[in-house]
Amino acid sequence: MALPTGTAGVFAPVNIAGLLLAKTDVRTPLFNMLGGVTHGAREFLTGAEYELDSASQPEVTETDSVTAPTPSYTTRTQAKNVTQMLHRAVSVTYRKQSNTQALTGLNLQGLTNNVPSELAFQIAGRTAEVRNDMEYTILQGTYNLATTADTADKTRGLNEAIETNVIAAASAELTPDILIEVAQTLASVSPYGVAGVLGVLNAEQIVQLNKIVTDEGQRVTMSEAGSNLLTYLTPFGRLNFLEGGHRYQTNGTATFVNISRCRNVFQSVPEKGNFFYEALAKTGAAERGQIFGQWGLDHGHEWIHAKVTGLATSTAATTAPKVFIDNDSDNPVYTDEVS
User: Fold this and answer.
1) CB 268: neighbour CB atoms within 10 A?
2) Cα(46)–Cα(15) distance, rounded to whole angstroms?
3) Which residues contact 251 (CB under 8 A, 6 or more apart)?
4) Residue 25 lies in a domain
């Protein structure tokens, strides 16, 4: 939702009582996994690479051998990304800060204002928004290198970065064949193969992923049933998945990122650090301040990741033709009905 703009005062936001919970999801799993480094320039390298000539069987005659062949050389390319600015501001009147005991709404005996410091509450909210912006950008960021002060630097996210290993699903649901193709592609292109690769799926694709188990047979014990598939075994290694899907992933896209080769890049301001709060010049009876930081995503070589596009955006009902009974037997027992 779009937040109101301006200065927080006595009449908005109002003081209320009761347990205060955020309706907005503030989890940032990808940002938390990446770690980070500090860099002293807005542009930074994500990799340098080269290619050799295609392999073939040489065909050199004795006559040919007395003359040196035409020389060739290897070219090199450099991949880069850019940090971007993240900026928020807060403003709270002195009147609002001193009005902590006044409550609006349903007031019962013994209840108190659930925000004792309006300024601290607003700073915390803007800081959480900055983290959400970075989490969104890790997946969905589009690259732009500013050439003037009137244009914005924008860091490239994973979905835009991946160009080599792209598999078109043609509106199919996520299937074992697609997962094997992802693993096979990475094994043939990346020196890391599928080691360290994490599948980042939308919630709808998580449902499709778990149909791989439920359509082949519902797993049942005496106390639980269902599936929560976090690892899929392929002939080329294990594919692991972010549990529960990611709220910022596009429905219809599955991104397989070598998470150990990615990192956050922070560009600090001298004598201030990065992502700091500082007071702004006063223009009246209000406390004004800003949160400022500079950050970008180092996604490494784009060809060590993969993505599947064009997946079905809805999931057909599970057929569950059989039920697998986990009875600690060496031979799994399948039945159409559990008694």
Assistant:
1) 15
2) 48
3) 202, 204, 205, 313
4) no
Q: How many domains does the chain have?
A: 2
- Residue 16, token pair as written in the block: 């209320």
CA distance 157 to 134: 10
pLDDT of 338: 47
> Would you say 200 and 254 are in contact if contact means Cβ atoms under 8 Å apart?
yes
* Burial status of residue 13 (CB atoms within 10 A of its CB: 0-12, 13-18, 19 or more): middle
Q: What is the pLDDT of residue 142?
A: 97
Q: In whole angstroms, what is the distance from residue 62 CA to residue 35 CA?
A: 57
Strand 254-258 with 237-241, pairing: unpaired
**pLDDT value of residue 339:** 45
Nearest to 89 by CA among 278, 270, 267: 278
Range of the domain at 270: 78-99+117-156+265-294
Query: Is 322 a domain residue?
Result: yes
Average pLDDT, 10 consecutive residues per value, the chain (339 residues): 82 77 86 92 89 84 89 87 96 92 77 87 93 96 96 97 97 96 96 95 94 67 73 95 95 97 95 94 94 96 97 84 55 54
Distance separating alpha carbons of residues 58 and 73, to the nearest angstrom: 18
Structural domain includes residue 129 = yes
Nearest to 302 by CA among 88, 125, 79, 117: 79
318, 235: one domain: yes
